[in-house]
Amino acid sequence: MAPLATPPHRTGLLVIQPLKKRHCVECGTGPLALLVLEEGAPRCLDCADLGHLVFLPRGDTALTRRSREGSALSTVVVRFNRRRSRYERQGVLVEEAALARAEERCLADAEARRRRRARDARRREAEDLRFTDAFAREIRRLFPGCPAERARAIAAHASVRGSGRVGRSAAGRALSEAAVTAAVRAAVRHTDTPYDQLLMSGVPRYEARRRIAASVEARLWEWRDELTARA
Could you tell me which InterPro entries the record lists for this protein (predicted)? Predict the structure, then answer.
């Protein structure tokens, strides 16, 4: 079996490309292409609150550096090399907007331009516009105070086909209240609270969630209020 001991690293978060089939101990998703070890147990990126990040392979030092500089939350991705008996860096996970900004600064690099066009094409092919519209309408039904543009952004992010995010789960495709609420809660957590900064500063995930829980619930309560929608 591939080792699951936490690999040594200097600072920050760490994501592993497993050599063997692993499943998330929290939601059961698997086999996982990427996982996070918490107390020796594998968790998927969504359960580790990293599902909104995109993978940037190693190879372009300038693009990697600029992406990490512009990303509020980022992590190194490693894989175990059996022959050398050590973990080796494969790339990083960064925020998509930070990667796009970094690529803008690297447009002189033909490879960066090719990578951006390929990613844009994959995103266009993956997006199911009708499902995204339905997801956004359900957000607005459950949270009438949520701004229409914000609901659309949350729906688009959660429902990207092949992403493994909550919108593409069985419950998400069925537009269950629990799945839609989970997508909205995750968006509020990452966008409207200092949650990402807490993780980057080394605060454990569960403690970071505890600290921002009241703020998240206050925003959800505000968006559920019909009066807010009419204001």
Answer: DUF2293 (IPR018744)
